[in-house]
Amino acid sequence: MNNQEYTEILEGYINYIIVENGQINTDDFVSKSLILSGSFNPLHNGHIGLLKTAKNMIKLEPFFEISISNVDKSNITLEDLNSRISQFDNVGKLLITNSPTFEDKSNIFKKSIFVIGYDTAERILQDKYYNDSTTGALQEIYNFGCSFLVAGRKVDKEFLTSSDLNLKDNYKRMFKEIPEKKFRMDISSSYLRKQNGFKL
């Protein structure tokens, strides 16, 4: 990705670009897709296996997605972003956005299903990510026709699934579970960074 493309996304001139095997595409329209969002620092087999499992369950076109900005972290630099993009050669299609929240993403990728882990689902339910209005954000995501496919995660020695989320009844339909027998991989990017000396 060049500096102009990076700036156009960061400043909102374009909503996203698609990268496939190093080639940039700004023309295709993405909706009603499977999207696995993350920082992918680094990309690992858990990410790849999770999106593959989701595609086997729901026959929609799969994408990975990286947002330049993040609610909890500083923006990804162009140099760092290009390094992360290079991991996806011969892996799959990658969306580059400047959409840090799922409310933002659902506004762009309408009628899509976001593939997430239990830990991400918990964060979605925290008010601080949505101007203290989680209920309003979930309603907005629902209005855009989007929902979530949730993989269980090991948390403090316990494997937790979407059934463990604190959800109001009217929003439970938005969070469908990936059964543990279909996918479980206890691995994280933060652990790999510590093991391999990646920058935190």
Question: In terms of topology, how is this protein built?
Answer:
Elements: H1 3-10, E1 16-20, E2 23-25, E3 34-37, H2 45-57, E4 62-67, H3 78-86, E5 94-97, H4 102-108, E6 113-117, H5 118-124, H6 134-143, E7 147-151, E8 153-155, E9 158-160, E10 175-178, H7 189-196
Parallel strand pairs: 3-4, 3-6, 4-5, 6-7, 7-10
Antiparallel strand pairs: 1-2, 1-5, 8-9
Structural commentary:
By secondary structure, the chain is of the alpha/beta class. It has one domain (3-184): 3-Layer(aba) Sandwich (Rossmann fold). 31% of the residues lie in helices and 21% in strands. The chain contains seven helices and ten strands. The chain has helices spanning 3-10, 45-57, 78-86, 102-108, 118-124, 134-143, 189-196; strands at residues 16-20, 23-25, 34-37, 62-67, 94-97, 113-117, 147-151, 153-155, 158-160, 175-178. The strands form two sheets. Strands 2-1-5-4-3-6-7-10 form an eight-stranded mixed sheet. Strands 8-9 form a two-stranded antiparallel ribbon. Helix 4 packs parallel to helix 6. The longest helix has 13 residues, at 45-57.
Main sheet attributes: strand count, strand direction, barrel closure: 8 strands, mixed
**Which percent range fits the helix content?**
25-40%
Radius of gyration: 16 Å
Which class in CATH terms?
Answer: Alpha Beta
